[in-house]
User: What shape does this take?
Amino acid sequence: SSGINAEWPLRPGSEVIVEKCNLIHPSKVPELEQLLYYLQTRKVTVNTETVEQEMERIRQATSQFDDIDEIQEKADLNELESYVDLLYDDMKTKTKGTSLILQLARNPDNLAELIENEMVLGALSRVLREDWKKSIDLCTNIVYIFFCFSSFSEFHSILLQYKIGSSCLQIIENELKRFEYWNDELAKKKKVPTATLR
Assistant: This one.
């Protein structure tokens, strides 16, 4: 496709996206329309006001995930150190810790404080490197946290420092290999009954 340009129809386009992506509820069409309108009209230069507006749109776009959060506990920035401590425990506790930190990262007001905390970034990047194969929830939470940072160019050098990009590429590469393996296995199983019939 040629992408979203000024001529792209907003309402039909939003409905097509909702139809093709089952993660977005049909009730989100008006919000999606607003996001598409923003993409059509945004300017390349970024100032403080547009950064705040962009984060508000990101918050709105991801609000659909609020209902599926397994962690009932409300995250508090003052408890950040105790959430980091959870990352040194068993897998279930690590996942809880990353969920709480993710709650904080989804609030743009917290990003500067989180990114300045080397202990948080170090622990998250370590857990991502060591444990991403062990839990999809844990991996998703951490990648989502770093996604929140990646929305701002001023945080890119820190993401580079912790090699988040290469970790994400490794995860994607592994998942693609796993998908190919499952596809091959499925194809083999589908061929077996036909072979036996002959």
